[in-house]
Amino acid sequence: DRTIKIAPSILSADFANFGAEIRAIQNQGADWVHVDVMDGHFVPNLTFGPPAVTAFRPHVTTFMDVHLMIAPVDAYIDAYAEAGADMITAHVEAGPHPHRTLQAIRATGKKAGIALNPGTPVEAVEYLLDLADMVLVMTVNPGFGGQKFIHSQVDKIARLRGAIGDRPIHIQVDGGVDPKTASLVAKAGADVLVAGSAVFKGGSVGQPEVYGANIRAI
Ligand code: DX5
Ligand code: ZN
Q1: What are phi and psi of 37, to 5 degrees?
Q2: Do residues 55 and 83 make contact, with C-beta atoms less than 8 angstroms apart?
Q3: Which residues make up the binding site for substrate (predicted)?
Q4: Contact yes or no for 136/67 (Cβ under 8 A)
Q5: What is the pLDDT of residues 20-59, one digit of tens each?
Q6: CA nearest ligand 1 atom 4, residue
């Protein structure tokens, strides 16, 4: 179905309270939990290894979507699958063999996603779509939360929707999603919206209703 799902990125959560933060966003209407994995090489920032994802797992009652911004990526797929990811998304730019990467994700039994950086055209994933449950269109250069939405990507989302046709493949958007940009990307054909700062801003674990209001505003 094409109903819009909201996937808060815990990159914007309180790093001393992940369990409580994950429970809070789910109680407040989050559909998925988005986990941003960064390696200090593919992107200029460092975040969560497999043990961190293992620690998040028991708190996730919805769906844990793990976005791997790491290269090379293939050697880590099994570890993130065992850590409890429901979906693993790798970047098409992470190496020369994204087709093999998607086969490896599928082999774990998890859902498979493929991500495109803002400079990468839709054509880069055209021959990967039959192995993908989701395509992630980055609307910022990956690495940090709180960056400005790149408007040229709206047209890319619409083209991607055309390339997907009637196949059951999600289009996820990640970066600078707020109430204004959310309606643009939804209109272009996206159905899973990642939001970090727009969900967590102004809130805290102690005031989860702020997260709820932020989620409903998207
Ligand atoms: C960026 C990450 C995003 C990020 C989004 O590299 O992949 O998931 O946390 O944060 P906002 O919504 O603040 O742009
Ligand atoms: Zn992400």
Answers
A1: -105, 120
A2: no
A3: 9, 67, 143-146, 174-176, 196-197
A4: yes
A5: 999 999 999 999 999 999 999 999 999 999 999 999 999 9
A6: 145
Nearest to 8 by CA among 196, 206, 201: 196
CA of 38, closest atom in ligand 1: 6
Binding site for substrate, by residue number, is 9, 67, 143-146, 174-176, 196-197
Whether 191 is a known active-site residue: answer no
Is residue 174 flagged as an active site residue? Answer: yes
pLDDT digits (tens, 9 = 90+) for 83-133: 999 999 999 999 999 999 999 999 999 999 999 999 999 999 999 999 999
Sequence ranges of the binding site: 9, 34, 36, 67, 143-146, 174-176, 196-197
> Average pLDDT for residues 3-17, to the nearest whole number?
97
Q: Which atom of ligand 1 is nearest to the CA of 149?
A: 14
What separation in Å is there between the alpha carbon of 166 and the centre of ligand 2? 25
CATH of span 5-217: 3.20.20.70
What was the ipTM of the complex prediction?
0.98
Q: Where are the domains of the chain?
A: 5-217
